[in-house]
Amino acid sequence: MARTPSIAVVIEGGLVKVTLVEDWPSHVPLPRVVIVDYDDEGASDDELTTFNIGNDVLDARCHEEIPSVYESFTKPALSPRAVLRALGVAADDDDEQPPLEVARRVRQEILDLDARINVTGQAPTGSDYNELYVLANCGLIEVLKSLGDSTNFGE
Q1: DSSP-assigned states of every residue in 68-108
Q2: Beta bridge partners of residue 16, listed in sequence order
Q3: Which residue of 3, 10, 11, 81 has the smallest Cβ count within 10 Å?
Q4: Share of the chain above pLDDT 90, in %
Q5: Reduced to 3 states, what is the DSSP secondary structure of residue 9?
């Protein structure tokens, strides 16, 4: 069973610094995240978006936030799963898969990605190569962990 993806929105001083996704399936596009801030004090009219919610008309500062994939970070970052563990949220991977099942699943995910790339009939893009790298790297880490490797892979 694959891990349930986790999302962290890192805020400092009321400003979003970064949005992280962890354990996000590589074959699924990253989520579209919007930040909505109802604190419109000091905002100019062009910074506000007006919404009708029920009978209320509300103004808010809104923007899209492109999430970063935690597993692809090359520098230390806070793991969304680590935050959930610190909060006492039970992990969904207490029943780890046997290594052979993990390896078979990762292989199938790589084959599925390859098939999706080939169906276009065009040369792979940089994005395709990045997706393959994340899939292969994260998959190998998962296989190593299922084999008992206790190396810190950045979590």
Answers
A1: EEGGG-SS----HHHHHHHTTPPPTTSSPPPHHHHHHHHHH
A2: 11
A3: 11
A4: 25
A5: strand
